[in-house]
Amino acid sequence: MKLVMAIIHDDDVYHVMDTLNEKGFSVTKLASTGGFLRAGNTTLISGVADERVVELIDIIERKCKSRKQITSVNSTHVNSTEGYIPYPVEVTVGGATIFVLNVDEFKKV
């Protein structure tokens, strides 16, 4: 058995969850926040039989698409009286970060 943890952009999570549920996967949804953009993400956790891990990952890969987004990043200047000046930066958001962990024991009570 494996524990699959997938960090997914909030815009993609409901498409992923709907498809996973249709295919018989049980999923726990946790709200999370990314460190760089400080934007909303969702972490999905699922206990999966070894032979179904590839199927679960394939669903996530099909439903989570990367895209470009413009965001503001604060820049510090030498002159402290000017303070912080935000400037636009294009970043890639979306996609998924997936961890697959071995499970020594699983109990559902």
How many separate helices?
A: 2
What is the ordering of alpha helices and beta strands? EHEEHEEE
Trace the largest sheet across and list its strands. Answer: 2-3-1-6
Distance between the termini: 17 Å
Alpha-beta classification: alpha+beta
The beta-strand count equals: 6
Q: Which CATH top level class of one domain fits?
A: Alpha Beta
Question: Strand fraction band?
Answer: over 45%
Fraction of helical residues: 10-25%
How many strands, which pairing sense, and closed or not: the largest β-sheet? 4 strands, antiparallel
Radius of gyration: 18 Å
Write the CATH architecture name of one domain. Answer: 2-Layer Sandwich
Report the mean per-residue pLDDT as an integer: 82
| Unreliable parts | none
Keywords for this entry:
109 residues; alpha+beta; Alpha-Beta Plaits; 4-stranded antiparallel beta sheet; 2 helices; elongated
What does this protein structure show overall?
With 109 residues, this protein is α+β, with helices and mostly antiparallel strands. The chain has a domain at 2-66 and 94-102: Alpha-Beta Plaits (2-Layer Sandwich), CATH 3.30.70. Helix content is 19%, strand content 48%. It has 2 helices and 6 strands; from the N terminus they run βαββαβββ. Strands 2-3-1-6 form a 4-stranded antiparallel beta sheet, covered by helices on one side. It has a two-stranded antiparallel ribbon with strand order 4-5. A hairpin with a 6-residue loop joins strand 2 and strand 3. Helix 1 (13-22) packs antiparallel against helix 2. It is elongated, with a radius of gyration of 18 Å. The model has no long low-confidence stretch (mean pLDDT 82).
